[in-house]
Amino acid sequence: MTITASVSDRIFLSDATLRASPLDLGQTTFPPPLRPDARLGVLDITEFYGDTTGGIRTYLREKAQYVEAHPAYRQVLVLPGSRDALSATEGVRCYRLRGPRVPKQAPYRFMLATRTNRRIVLHERPDVIEVGSPGLVPWIARLASRGLDIPAVAFYHSNFPRVFTPFPETAGGARRAIADLAWRYARAIDKHFAHTIACSEFAAADLRRAGVERVTRIPLGVDLAHYHPMRRARRDDVRARYALTAGPLAGFVGRFAVEKELDVLLDAWPRVHARTGAELVLIGAGPLQPRLEARLRDMPYARILPYETDRGRLADLLAALDICVAPCSVETFGLSALEALSSGTPVLSADRGGISEQVETSGAGRRFASGSAASLAEEAVALLAADLGALGALGRRYAEDDHSWESVFDRVFALYARVTGA
């Protein structure tokens, strides 16, 4: 099943669409490479992709739109899926490779098709490979490109050593040993990368402390026209559509996973509600959803909304919040927080991690002591009492200053050019 479409979510086929694909990419004859005269071609490969994932999916989609608009470039995407499939648009081709689900980490899938990856790289002959996940993919990319003199760049989307041990500086015993092992692994795969992109100074500093020295900070971007404060004018209608309160409302947007530290948020919210009347909405999906649903049975002022596949509706929801809460202390960046700031919604974040940098630099919110429900509650109460309109304006200004996707990918492709000598 080969699909040609304009750049949109249609190039990133859903699992439901993939199930109809009869392709076996280990045997299929591939169509000729797109834009054979392009000055530079990149192959993006990652396991961090699925129907209900957020930041990395957005990064790849926006990158595809950028490539389509710049004829000097071409892009090949290699992503896991429920079945093999192939889709394409102007200058961009996406290979989906069948892989089993990662246990307890829906919707992620393993990337295991080493021979098919080799076929793809030999056929497409990219100038550079960008590796977007740390597990099996670095080794698969290395095997696929052996003997071809194709440099690889890592994008440090996940601060995986801190996912295992969020505070290794104070951890002891087994948890410190796990952190040390994870950083040894990070150093081992770094030997195969010409460079690593980190999207926050927090992530870049972690890498440098661990001995990963070839690091460049390039922040992620936001669609400034889509995530816009003008949407706040219809917040009452949006809240009514989802049966949300007309009073104070806070929200979390993201994946329901352990590393997001949602227990800290839920532990804090009874205190926030008692003092402010603020309700809480969690927007997303993930492996922790059954546990969250069980907790919320005793919290009538908090609820879950499913992962929102419609980008317009998600932007409306972000603009309809009074504040966005980001409890995770190990985020490498936190794209949903930037989307909230761009929408004019202040952010409450942990005082560590990539989102903390956004809040500190923009001045558009408050920060609480990482891991502390008591601190989160105090700062949420203070933020809800602040001039949210003025803070929202600061957030919008911050997003406009340095976070258009065009400027982000100008920097990414400039790095590719340095690495390849193009």
Plain-language structure description:
This protein has 422 residues and is of the alpha/beta class. The chain has 2 domains: 2-221 and 404-420, Glycogen Phosphorylase B (Rossmann fold, 3-Layer(aba) Sandwich); 229-401, Glycogen Phosphorylase B (Rossmann fold). Helices cover 40% and strands 18% of the residues. The strands form 2 sheets. Strands 1-4-5-3-2-6-7-8-9 form a 9-stranded mixed beta sheet, with helices on both faces. A 6-stranded parallel beta sheet has the order 12-11-10-13-14-15, with helices on both faces. Helix 13 (354-362) links the parallel strand 14 and strand 15. The longest helix is centred in the middle third of the chain and has 18 residues, at 173-190. The protein is globular. 49% of the residues are buried.
Q: State which percent range the strand residues make up.
A: 15-25%
Q: What would you call the shape?
A: globular
Strand order of the largest sheet: 1-4-5-3-2-6-7-8-9
Total beta-strand segments: 15
Task: Please state the average pLDDT score.
Answer: 91
Fraction of residues in helix: 40-55%
Q: Structural class of the helix and strand makeup?
A: alpha/beta
How much is the radius of gyration in Å? 21 Å
Major sheet summary line: 9 strands, mixed
Number of helices: 16
**Beginning-to-end CA distance, first to last residue:** 34 Å
Q: Would you identify the regions where 5 or more consecutive residues have pLDDT less than 50?
A: 1-6
Name of the level-1 CATH class of the largest domain: Alpha Beta
Provide the number of structural domains: 2
CATH topology of the largest domain: Rossmann fold
CATH architecture of the largest domain: 3-Layer(aba) Sandwich
By CATH, the superfamily of the largest domain comes out as Glycogen Phosphorylase B
